[in-house]
Amino acid sequence: MQHPRVFLPLAAALWWMLYQTLVPASEWLVAQLPVDRTSHLGGALQFFFYDTPKVLLLLTGVVFVMGMVNSYFTPERTRALLAGRSEGVANVMAATLGIVTPFCSCSAVPLFIGFVQAGVPLGVTFSFLISAPMVNEVALTLLFGLFGWKVALLYLGLGLSVAIVAGWVIGRLKMEAYLEDWVRDMPRMSADFDPGHTTLADRVQAGFASVQEIVGKVWPYILAGIAIGAGIHGYAPQDLMASFMGKEAWWSVPLAVLMGVPLYTNAAGVIPIVQALLAKGAALGTVLAFMMSVIALSLPEMIILRKVLKLRLIATFVAVVASGILMVGWVFNAVL
Length: 336
Known about the structure:
mainly alpha
């Protein structure tokens, strides 16, 4: 990258111009098809044609920017920041670092091992591993773009609270004995890390690499999530969704959590579904609980973590995080 200071404003202007064309372009595409715009199919197609480029544009833009930011927060630097901190303060730091670090549930095993080797307390490690996939830059940016700053800020506060409290509780339970033996017996390594010198051009290249890595992996989930959301938007009866995921039924929140656990997707894939559910009358607390369970308690992540955790620690982790998510859903259904 020869002239990053010229490239960045030009790229931002092009991104903004494309973003402004989304609504008329989606309506034009539906108008070219032999369907009635006011029909169920017409509504579903407009939702799909609008949300697909919108989510991909938002995702590409934020991943590029955060790829540049993340050049400051490598796994080595993250471990160095957390190692040696007292619990409580370290839980808050770990959950906050999770917002700006690009680690998903598929990174759980190597990150967990690295944190243990660096001497990071078990509860602090869990605060980070809960926050990183659940309260990341992708989730917050897409929530802001689709629902506004109030919902994005609400999700940020809820996600951080769950990550901090759950990690602190797990730390208080002193469950280091339930790490797999080979993990617990690993020699400790130094947490010192020298990031070296990185230029703006290097950070731009890191942004491109991040887009290639993350967007290249998640776009199938995005298309699947938007397709499901389009089906809900176009065909699901509003009264049915409101009764199934509304405020009145106390069981709607635990049912939403149970539905979310077997799913394997990420924020980019689940947010279009959340958007469609809310448009159909589902309660915000119930939908947020569903989203959190999909991202933070997915069954594939539990299978991955089984390589380093014994079953009792996995069960404790699931129980503590699920309890926090349930409280989030019930409280916000009660007050909103």
